[in-house]
Amino acid sequence: MATATVEKKLTKQQVRKAAWTWTWWCLTVFGFERLQAPGFTMAMLPIVDAFYQDKPEEQQALLMRHRVFFNTEPKIGAMIPGIALSLEEARANGADITDDFIQNIKVGLMGPYAGIGDAINQATVPPILRSICIGLSGQTGSVVGPLLWIIFQAIYCPVLTIACFTLGYNLGTDAVDLILGERMARIQSAMAVMGLTVTGALTANYVRFNLGIEYTSDLATVNINTVLNGIFPGLLPMGLVLFGYYMLTRRNFNALKLMILYVVVAIVGGAIGLLVP
């Protein structure tokens, strides 16, 4: 690819409009054949006039380039349409950038960015905030928890998506090193540890698994649940969670089967007095 000085044609407002378009439309017109490709094409729509004014054939070619299959995590992955936008800008200014080069960048990045985005936006940040919201409302039924979650979603999702889109546009292909470099790997590892820590704390506080077994003698009545908690507080809830993890990872159980198993055990155990609230 030839090196060329890129004459910036897009204003901040135009880039922001493209970013907002991706934010709102990236998961619409969703089909298995193309997945996020319609949203990707929509994100390019606001800027075609800036690149190829009065050139309908070039505008059509730009949009057609992005109608092929695309799928990634939509927030962190918003860097990819941002990068594509910067490449389209360079191409419009005469840089030797082919259709294949743009497509190869998209295909090569959508998997790694999806992995990082899912680790952050599915497995780390939401569980942490949900645990806070549950803590605010779990015992009292307060509306503060649900309201906090709604406000978080309304702010976090668009702000992160637009920021990543803009960063991808500003950095161009340099964004590859930023997001896939060693520093990001350390950050991702640290966030994974934090997410697991919060999950463990959530388990200890909100998973209930109490045995109703008691041993009665002439001298005293011993509650087995109290004895186990005295040895290792939260041992039974932790065992229940580890059992679920084992069934999901080693026995090819899915979440639905595991929930049904838990419900059946709870009903039967409660009926015979083995389990108590």
Describe the structure.
The protein has about 280 residues and is mainly alpha-helical. It folds into two domains: about 10-200, no CATH class; about 210-275, no CATH class. It is about 65% helix and about 5% strand. It is built from 13 helices and four strands. The protein has helices spanning about 10-25, 35-45, 50, 55-65, 80-90, 100-120, 125-135, 145-170, 175-180, 180-205, 225-230, 235-250, 255-270; strands at about 210, 215, 220-225, 275. The chain has a two-stranded antiparallel sheet with strand order 1-4. The protein has a two-stranded antiparallel ribbon with strand order 2-3. A hairpin with a 4-residue loop joins strand 2 (about 215) and strand 3. Helix 1 (about 10-25) runs antiparallel to helix 2, helix 7 packs antiparallel against helix 8 (about 145-170) and helix 7 packs parallel to helix 10 (about 180-205). The longest helix is centred in the middle third of the chain and has 28 residues, at about 145-170. It starts with 11 loop residues before the first helix and ends with a strand.
